[in-house]
Write a sequence for this structure.
């Protein structure tokens, strides 16, 4: 078990595993996203109160959901990086940050575009909105902190500490709609028991959610591969990859 | 497919700017997440060759 684990955590074998896995994740996410979004835009019935504006749910909820799960994953990778000093965990952390930041930004902006017609305002300083904005700043803080260090290992260590401390914000975002009297509505889908949504509306949402999760896994793997290439520059396996790339380029230009 | 020719579909019961704006932004950000790592990989592999 442990030898297997160590082999997986070694940069060249992880790189190869990611290379094999990524295309499948990408293809599956593309199918789910296309299916979910087309179904959600064209075939799901309009909401009796919000009419067609409710369709923003198909981009808002999936991105908001992954903004939290990516942060949790980043904090877990941070714990592993601090305690065991595993290079791969550092790479995972630094690969998750930009993907998470972009998903958080999309969740915030689509939320604003939904809030304007429904609440009458793009922004209110409400518990859910404010804590999600803090989440964006935490992601940006991790990215900025990493870039401020010359040594990637020292940078990753500092980022890990920030990511771990910032993890307190995750339950605050998640439960803000229950703890405080919020303008933001409660969860429709991700709760115990029956979803308070008809199947024709919920189906595309599940597809878009699953598609977004797989897509983020794809994007994180690709970024981890890049992070590994940069850190392992000059090693034999990177050299081999490069030569293969150079051969590809030459045959493509012929 | 007739739905795509129906102006009522594109108008999204008057919320077209918000609905299409949200989807447009989302698609753009997903595309960036898809393409940016590919471009970066190419850069990295090319930069190592020069060294």
């Amino acid at each position: 078990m442990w030898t297997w684990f160590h082999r997986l955590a070694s940069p060249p074998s992880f790189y190869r595993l990611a290379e094999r896995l990524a295309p499948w994740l990408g293809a599956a996410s593309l199918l789910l996203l296309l299916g979910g979004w087309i179904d959600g835009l064209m075939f799901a019935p309009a909401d009796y109160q919000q009419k067609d504006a409710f369709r923003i749910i198909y981009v808002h909820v999936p991105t908001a959901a992954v903004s939290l799960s990516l942060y949790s994953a980043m904090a877990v990778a941070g714990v592993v990086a601090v305690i065991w000093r595993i290079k791969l965990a550092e790479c995972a952390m630094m690969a998750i940050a930009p993907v998470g930041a972009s998903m958080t930004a999309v969740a915030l902006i689509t939320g604003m575009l939904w809030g304007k017609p429904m609440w009458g305002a793009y922004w209110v300083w409400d518990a859910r909105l404010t804590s999600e904005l803090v989440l964006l700043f935490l992601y940006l803080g991790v990215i900025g902190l990493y870039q401020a260090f010359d040594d990637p290992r020292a940078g990753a260590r500092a980022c890990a500490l920030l990511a771990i401390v910032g993890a307190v914000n995750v339950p605050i975002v998640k439960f803000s709609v229950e703890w405080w009297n919020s303008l933001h509505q409660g969860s429709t889908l991700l709760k115990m028991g029956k979803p308070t949504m008809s199947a024709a509306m919920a189906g595309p949402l599940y597809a878009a959610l699953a598609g977004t999760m797989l897509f983020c896994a794809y994007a994180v793997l690709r970024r981890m591969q890049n992070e590994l290439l940069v850190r392992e520059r000059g090693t034999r396996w990177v050299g081999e990859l490069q030569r293969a790339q150079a051969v590809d380029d030459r045959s493509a230009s012929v | 497919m007739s739905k795509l020719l129906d102006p009522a579909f594109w108008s999204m019961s008057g919320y077209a700017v918000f609905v299409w704006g949200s989807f447009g932004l989302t698609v753009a950000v997903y595309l960036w997440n898809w393409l940016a790592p590919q471009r970066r990989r190419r850069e990295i592999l090319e930069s190592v060759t020069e060294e």
Notes: The longest helix of chain A spans residues 11-43. The two ends of chain A are 47 Å apart (CA to CA).
